[in-house]
Structures are given as structure tokens and as C-alpha cells.
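Protocol step 4 of 5: obtain the predicted structure for the target chain.
Materials: sequence only (see below). No template structures provided, no constraints applied. The aim of this step is simply to have a reference model before the mutagenesis design in step 5. Sequence pasted as it appears in the construct record:
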Amino acid sequence: MGKTYARIDGRLRAFIEEQKIFFTATAPLSGDGRVNLSPKALDGSSALLDEHTFVYADLGGSGAETIAHLRENGRITLMWCAFTGPPSIVRVHGRGEAVLRDDPRWDALVPHFSDEVRKRTDVRAIIVVTAERISDSCGFAVPYMDFREERDLHTQRFSRETDASFNDYCAAKPHVGTSLDGLPALPLPLPPRTS
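Step 4 output (C-alpha cells):
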């Protein structure tokens, strides 16, 4: 039977930090809008700041649905599930915000990521999630799956980009400046970094 928690600490924090992948879910307010579900897995690109705040780097390569939905309504759900060890699923329902590269908070958030992530030119924004509801459930139906290794294709692809060429890439890609449903997403050209 699942339980709710007042904070992310102890066992919950350890569980979240051990997982190799998590999922984000957002949706627009419109009943006709598309729900977005995304896997996030790049090592060193996420962190728990405290018992209620989680951050992750929003990387280039896909549309910007999450950012568009957060700009419109701020709703977000994060989910981690165990593929090894005891079965468990942890969900954080909360409020999210995209901190853009020229935001004064950028410099304080970036150090929470690995050196490799901090150096990347394709970090478009930092998503900050404040937990409003923290819960777990059994995860009995989640299959066992073994982690082999990180894929390096994304890193290889975007390591070739300069700030200027990455801006061009984003401007040419559909659904970066505007979501699938026509909501404003990332400002283009991307704001310059504060540092």
C-alpha cells in the first residue's frame, strides 16, 4: 500500500539518487492539448537541493513541451521506479519552473550538476520542481531490468555545438520556440548564459 510523505529524505532520497532514469509528465490546461511524458537519464544532470526541491538540466535535442506547459500552468509530476532491488515507485507531484540561461538564479543552480553537464552548450534551461505531494507505491508489476551503461550518443552529438550553432539548431527545430499545441516555449534566440 502506498504512503504519502511530508518531505524527501532518508530512504526516499537514497532511492531517488540511486535510480538511473526518471520520468516527467506535464500537460496544458486545454482539454484538447497533448500530455507530455519524457524520460530523463543523463548522469549528473539532476539533483535534490533539499527535502522539497528537485532540479534537472533541460537539454537540447527534442521539443520544449515541458517548458511550455510549465510556463502556462506550472504543473509537473516526476516518477522514479525501481528496475533492480525491492519494487518501488516514487512520485512527486509539484510546481515546476524553467529557469532560463539569463536568470540570476542560473549561477546558483548550475553547480549542482556534474562538471560534464556544466560544460555542455546544449543546456537550454534548468527545471526547478517544488514538491507538493510526495508518495510511493509498490511497483510489483515493474520488471527487472539491468543497467548496462550510459549511452553517449547525445553527448557526442551536442559536443560539436558552440553557443551560436546551438542557437541556430534550436531556431531551426520545430516545437522549441512553440509547443505542439502552440504555447510559448523557449525564447529564441536562447538567452545568453549568465556565466
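Step 4 remarks: The beta strands are 3-5, 22-26, 36-40, 46-48, 53-59, 75-81, 89-100, 123-137. The longest helix spans residues 163-172.
Proceed to step 5.
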